[in-house]
Automatic annotation (TrEMBL), chains A, B:
PROSITE patterns, per database record: TOPRIM
Name of the protein this chain belongs to: Recombination protein RecR
Lineage start: Bacteria, Pseudomonadati, Verrucomicrobiota, Opitutia, Opitutales
Species assigned in the record: Termitidicoccus mucosus
Matches recorded under InterPro entries: DNA_Rcmb_RecR, Rcmb_RecR, Rcmb_RecR_Znf, TOPRIM_dom, TOPRIM_RecR
The organism's place on the tree of life at top rank: Bacteria
SUPFAM superfamilies: Recombination protein RecR
Family indicated by similarity: Belongs to the RecR family.
Record GO terms (molecular function): DNA binding; zinc ion binding
Gene that encodes the chain: recR
Amino acid sequence: MTPAFEKLQKQLRQLPGLGFRSAERIALHLLVEKPARLPELVEALQAAAATVRRCPRCGNLAEDGLCAICADERREQGVVCVVEHVPDLVAMERSGAYRGVYHVLHGRLSPIQGVRPEDLNFEALFSRVADGGVRELILALSNDVEGEATCHYLTQHLPAPANGVEVKTTRIGFGLPSGGGVLYADSVTLKSALDGRRHYE
Amino acid sequence: MTPAFEKLQKQLRQLPGLGFRSAERIALHLLVEKPARLPELVEALQAAAATVRRCPRCGNLAEDGLCAICADERREQGVVCVVEHVPDLVAMERSGAYRGVYHVLHGRLSPIQGVRPEDLNFEALFSRVADGGVRELILALSNDVEGEATCHYLTQHLPAPANGVEVKTTRIGFGLPSGGGVLYADSVTLKSALDGRRHYE
Ligand SMILES: [Zn+2]
Ligand SMILES: [Zn+2]
């Protein structure tokens, strides 16, 4: 086609789930079939990039102040599910099996990929625990060596809550396939994984 | 998630081939995982929207002047394949079975959807024929009532070439499933459809 068309197609191909043909189909759709949608899409991308930021409490996506989950008083604010990434949180929410809140680490420890504790969202979590607002921590990290290392680091560095409350730490485990995270697990698997969580330390 | 996130997801869902989950996955990718890609994508979209236009000769995508196919002297410029949409042309090109050029109508006649002859790219085609540069017209329009009506209109209104050359008109037909266009046909089907084209008037 044309250079600008091919550059757009190349950008689209880098998005998850889009191959050569689907990127081509979308580029044609935006340039030929429904050109009115292109500026609308650009506007939505720019608006999202300008307004979406991290929730200062949990690391989830938010706009002003706390995210919708941290701000929801019907959620059990004392039960905190620790996940690696926002899509993991989305998968948990989709399962409908969970009524607590979250903490998103935005990764997991990996000596090989050079991810160190200071690269992850640990400090905000340790503050939440130290402040005494956490009664239970559910570690929903991947069922592999790096997830294990992250769980280990986390429990080793967990501060004592100011109010002397004991924090029960469990690790989601039952049902997660070996080597896999929560992102690609279906709702039933996540439900059983939550039910089968066990004490962890 | 957040309102801006949901608006972006809604825009993405309107793109062909993207459902709720794939739109969500792409939005998360652009906002959380690879935020550096978002401005790159916006730039590619805007650049394509600003530079890509219709080829003045055939209606295909072009930037400055003629499209790459009309400008290619190795293509048989006297053999013109008439298609409904640019993606049809792309599917034909992908088959590798065709060495002529194209004419894109950008639709087909449809009394029901209110598509009239003046809404389609007929005039430029009639000019090409009148100018005497067309030796063969291959009608690669859909194998249904509207495709048939479009073929009929086209042959009824074809002007006499200035140089007295006879235009051979064929209709691609063999191999296209009933009710279907060339867009979703595989390369083998398109190859056999081209080979089996028959005289049409
Ligand atoms: Zn939050
Ligand atoms: Zn052209």
